[in-house]
Hints:
By secondary structure, this protein is mostly helical. The chain has helices at 2-16, 33-50, 57-71, 105-110, 114-129, 132-140, 145-161, 165-175, 186-202, 208-223, 238-250, 254-257, 264-277, 280-288, 295-307, 311-324, 329-341, 346-359, 364-376, 380-393, 398-410, 414-427, 431-444, 448-470, and strands spanning 83-86, 93-96, 100-104. The chain crosses the membrane at residues 91-111, 142-160.
Amino acid sequence: MMRLRSLIAVACMAGMLFSPVGECSAFFGEFTLQDEMKMGREFEVLVKSTMPLIEDPVVHDYVQDVVDRIVKPLPPQPYKFPASVVLHDSLNAFAAPGGFVFVFSGLIMHLNHESELAGVLAHEVAHVTQRHIAGRMERGRAISLASLLGMVAGVAAGIAGGGSAGGAAMVGSMAAGSTAMLNYSRLDEDDADRFGLKYLVDAGYNPKGLGGAFEVLRSQNWGGGSSMPAYLSTHPDLNIRLAKLRADLQTMPESLKNRKEDDGRFRRVQALLWARHGDAGHAEQIFAKGGDKDPVGLMGRAMLAARQNRTKEAEALFASALKLAPKDALILREAGIFEYTKGGDMGRARRYLEQSLRISPGDYYAVFFYARILDDSGDRAGAQARYREVLRHVPEDSEVHTYYGRSLGAVNKLCEGYLHLAYAALYGNDERRAENWLEKAKAAARSAEEKKSVKEYEEKAKERAKIMKKAR
């Protein structure tokens, strides 16, 4: 029986080198696909509770769409490949067990083309489809949720410190030995490069994107002093890998190598990230290249001016951007948010957001600010309906739960209001405050429905506590 299991495992490993899906994965050790999915979901909880994620649908949905485009041509997969964007200036991305893909905002901001971002994401998808992560777990068996959290904690330390120390800590964690999740072998990396390039081409992207991404990563990290990306950290022979990619490109038809780069949406997301999160001086230089005829660049400059409390300048820049692009949903949204947050013309803020939502009704970031305007104007029912809409998209967003809870409390819906404040504290990792709000909700619960809601909260909190305990 042991010999048969060994032969099956060897056959599966050989098959993984030529097939996009490890079809025999259930026979690998004892780490089944179900185990991988469970660990992936738990790891996602840890990431979301440890690192700030960008929930703006303009950013999140864009990255998810790129991942979906890469995955669509593949054979049927057991993974859904949910993507998340981590707010951090590191040039980094990684895949977790179960097909969860994480990309750092710094990576998106520093690449040159969408095909480069797609190349990195295709590389990560390949690590999943080839079961490199699961394979290391099956061979090592020492990897636990706690060891995975070590990587997250390293990055989180960098976030708290405002520098690249977290990235360095993460690299150190991964280089430490077999307990690191992403300490891939050379064979794994070559595999991910090869399949990643295939996935990139099959998705319709310019195949130069993967090599272009590696060039950016090499120049930014080795020349610029940033922390090394996760999947390059233990393999400094990047020149060899780039040479292989260039050799592969030479064998491809010119029609593939000359595919047009469609960077329109990519540029908009980049502009939004630089304007809201990037270094102001660097961002100013980037936006200046567009001159006064680029509406998205003008929006970015307006957002930067608002960040630095140059209100009059921001007003003028938003006006110029809207004059050039009066029906641009993103510019309308950001102009509305600016008017609201500066405490200016609430009528104008409301009009901008309403216009934005007519063009892009699924933008729940705009819906959230529109709900706040309704709340402030006394339309509690209208505001609460919008908060519920937002929570359908981001059910674990502490800020939305906080505003919704306060709005409910204002109309004397005490139990429900306290519960949402408890959720806000729970997802904000404030256990003491969560317990306090829960006790208030219990005391205020009168109807059977309210008591059921309290019980649902307790079950979610209990399950979350179990996951967090595993990581300690």
